Hints:
This protein is mostly helical.
Amino acid sequence: MRAIAAEAGVDAALIHHYFDSKQQLFLATVALPLGLPGMLEEVAAGDRAGLGERLVRGVLGVWDSELQPSLVAAVRTALTDPALTRSTGEFLALEVVGRVLPRDNLSPEEVNRRAGLVASQILGLVIGRYVLRLPVLANRQTEDLVAEVGPTVQRYVDGRT
């Protein structure tokens, strides 16, 4: 956040005044719903066995909303700017996926490994379905994708690769 303040030519305290966290700042810049943390809490709240499917369903629900055009634009922009690409990847792996992964006394390295694998699956699905519009993904019903991709995400959640 200090780097953003420096580039904007303002004091970092000003950014902290309006945004409590990097997550809030990122959500505001890409027009993601501020309800995203609540959705993530719902995904994390259920039993571990269905976490993969709940996460895929939740992500697709956000992407299937009226926010889709701005989300596609945000991903396209992030993919063309190396700094944004890194920030977006970190945000997805740590702030989104990292918040829903069960810790189970795992080492930080193991949590990061699992979060990275889950993020890679979710990003591949989102980019394939909404950015590249691959027919095999774009033409599928959401619940079919949840049933097909959810188990793979679940394997990553459980540490089985």
